[in-house]
Amino acid sequence: MSSFETLLEFGRSSAVLSPGTIGVVALIILWTLYVLISNPVTIKFLTSLQKQATQTQVPRIPKIPEAPDALPFVGNLMPLGGRLNENDSTIYSQWPKKLSSDIFQIRLGSERAVVANTFSTIKDLWVGHSNDLIDKPQQHGFAEKLEYDLSGANMTEPIRRCRKAATRALGKPLWPTYYHLLEPSSVYLTRELLSKDDEYMDIYPYLRHIVFDLALSLTYGTVSNGVDDEFTDALVESINQISFFRASTQRLRDYIPILRFLIPDFVSGNLVVAAEKRRQKYLDVIFDALKKRIASGEQLSTPIGQGFQSELYDAILAAYSRNRDKAWEMAFREESVELLVSLYKETLRFWTITPYSLPRTTFKDISYYNTVIPKGTTMIMNAQQANHDTAWYGDDALQFRPTRFMGKTDSLPHLTFGAGSRICPAAALSNRIIYALIARLVLAFKINEPKDPRARKANADMLDFSAEYKSLVALPRRFDVSFSPRDEGWIRTKLL
Ligand code: HEM
Ligand SMILES: *[C@@H]1O[C@H](CO)[C@@H](O)[C@H](O)[C@H]1NC(C)=O
Ligand SMILES: *[C@@H]1O[C@H](CO)[C@@H](O)[C@H](O)[C@H]1NC(C)=O
């Protein structure tokens, strides 16, 4: 019988708690405590518990302020991971104000991380120390159960080769071999939109279909059956589940070793594994591109966008001496409409679909101003905040200004693809796909806000556009748009 059961028995048998009874109870409690505390195993446990409560993979970094209100074991995790119904970037943005520093350190359970919040600090570290920020933090939910993909792996020799291969496959010289995959998708989209005529609709499933087909063709040389394909839906569902957990601060046990020790990982762990098994390689990242394109459709469908739309239409025609056919034909092959280039850059800047990017790990000690960020520190860029940094972009940083990047050739216009050594290898290809899809949509249709009051309005807020605040990538709220053909006869010549 345990001491606790003895106590219960004791309480039950005595009708009244006399002073004598209370004395005996107190004695038993004291004795139990003594036995527990004097036990060397207990002492070891308590010492390690105390250590666990504050220990991190690297010690506190001098001269970089710490985020307030860290708790034992959890550190600063409590307000993160969507637990306050806000995404991590939004929370990160609040701390520098309290600390009056654009860079600070936080404790994610047992993981010490540095968070950079301004464009120039991020550029200094991610670009200036490109080769020192080349590794990735361990994510336990994934590391224990699955092999890492490229984006989550340290830059070991095999991964270096893998990144090289990815960069080659996604690089400009190979693009011509993708045109025959991309162009039919855009024709398919145009045909579908034309058949809808003036009704309003959600373009999301169609764009999703294009990205999905591209991925399938690249990997398996097949295409899916259509927009409502069950298989497509199931796959996309599994992808969403993955990016829900990927590099996110939602699951406390990924960061707190004692939780992994105390609670066996069978529920959430299996969820991750089950979803991952169904996932196609890199499809979650490809999916980002899709979300991005929807964000751009969003702007074009607001009343403010109407004037810009005809300006863009004229600019596209002007770039091809008003030859519509040439403009259509070249859409995937070159980027000669500067206004459209500026538009997609501004779109990716303004609606930061990867609000806190993907974390990195320092590969060696980094001297940074008057301190040293040690090897093995997690580095987080607050891309959402830096993309709206008035010190970098000027006072209009909080406005969507499609002409912002006209005449600018900065190699790092925004941080939505990351920066430095592990920057997204598909950035240029994604840009080109976005460019071409918008070019062809604008050439073929006038995009309007639906008149029907039942149609869902777009949310064009730079932070609130996403329906999701927990996961790695934003998930734009769904909305309806109406497409009216500019010249149906001409469009039909493109559908052959
Ligand atoms: C608009 C579309 C996209 C966005 C916004 C995006 C964003 C990102 C970001 C923020 C990173 C982390 C970069 C860093 O740590 O500095 C990344 C990495 C990566 N992306 Fe993309 N991505 C997009 C499209 C794609 C596509 C279409 C593919 C593949 C076909 C792709 C493949 C990858 C890979 C393989 C990595 C890992 C690179 C590495 O860790 O070395 N991405 N992406
Ligand atoms: C990358 O290397 C660091 C040591 O520099 C290690 O702490 C970390 O867990 C490694 N990350 C992965 C994903 O293996
Ligand atoms: C960030 O969180 C806010 C809530 O504070 C939410 O409205 C917004 O959609 C989120 N943004 C992204 C990119 O996830």
TrEMBL record:
Statement: the UniProt record of this protein carries the keyword Iron: yes
- Looking at the UniProt entry, the stretches that span the membrane are 20-37
Annotated coiled-coil segments of the chain: none
**Does the record carry rRNA-binding as a key word?**
no
In which residues is heme bound?
424
Against PROSITE patterns, the record matches this protein to: CYTOCHROME_P450 (PS00086)
- What molecular function terms (GO) are annotated for this protein? heme binding; iron ion binding; monooxygenase activity; oxidoreductase activity, acting on paired donors, with incorporation or reduction of molecular oxygen
Family label = Belongs to the cytochrome P450 family.
PANTHER family (UniProt xref): P450, PUTATIVE (EUROFUNG)-RELATED-RELATED, P450, PUTATIVE-RELATED
Protein's UniProt name? Cytochrome P450
Q: Which organism is it from?
A: Hyaloscypha variabilis (strain UAMH 11265 / GT02V1 / F) (Meliniomyces variabilis)
Its organism's taxonomic lineage begins at: Eukaryota, Fungi, Dikarya, Ascomycota, Pezizomycotina
